[in-house]
Amino acid sequence: MIACSENCIYAKEGLCWLKEVTKPSNTPIKDCPYFEPKEKQKEGP
User: Fold this and answer.
1) Which uninterrupted H or E stretch holds 15?
2) Residue 4 · residue 10 · CB < 8 Å
3) All structural domains of the chain with their residue ranges
4) Dihedral pair phi/psi, residue 31, rounded to 5°
5) Residue 25, Cβ neighbours under 10 Å: how many?
6) Contacts of 42 (CB under 8 A, 6+ apart)
7) Cβ distance 35 to 8 under 8 Å?
């Protein structure tokens, strides 16, 4: 298991849930080449 405290789509309950290694993202961070930011939730209709 890999700890993950970032706001990443693969982060869940403090762990990384990336199941398969893929090509590195366009927005890597220092300790994670697969970082993908979570999209902001739209408010209202």
Assistant:
1) strand 15-16
2) yes
3) 1-39
4) -100, 0
5) 16
6) none
7) yes
